[in-house]
Amino acid sequence: MKTSFVTLDTPESLQVVRDIADEVWPKTFAPILPPEQIPYMMRMMYAPEVMERELREGYHFAALIVDDVPSGYVSWSPYHGDTAKLHKVYLLTSCHGKGFGRLMLDYVSDVCRAAGFKRLRLNVNKHNERAIAVYRKNGFETVESVKNDIGGGFYMDDYVMEKRLG
Prior knowledge:
The chain is α+β, with helices and mostly antiparallel strands. It contains five helices and seven strands; from the N terminus they run βαααβββαβαββ.
C-alpha cells in the first residue's frame, strides 16, 4: 500500500477532515458517550468556522493518504514551552490494525521534533481503551486525569498522556 501525508492548510482543504470525522466519530464514540453528545462535539470541533479559526491560531492539519484515498487525519499545535499538543488523530476503521495508527503518530512526532518540541501531549477519553492501548504502545504515558466541562451539560473525562520526543 502506498501512503503519504498531505498538509491541509486552506479552509477548503479541511473538508477532508470533516468527511473522515463524519464516518469515524460516531463509530468511535457511540459506545462511550451519550448519543446527544456526539453531534454536540462534532459541531464544537469540526464546524468550518472552528477549524478555520484553528488554522489562523497556528494549528496544523494533515491527512493520511492510503492508495490515493484520504484515510485518516492528525491535528497538532504548539502547547506550552517545549511541548506540542496532539489535538486529533483519527483513522478510518477499515484501516485499523494495519500499522497506520503508528505511522500517523510517528509522523506527528517527527514533525514536532523537527520543529524543536521535546514532548507531545494529548487528551484521550478514559473509556477509549483501544486508543489508550495504541498510545501506550507508542511511548505515551498517562500524566494526569481531567474532567472538563464543555458546555451543554457535557464533560470530557480524559487522561492526559505525554511522550518525550528525545
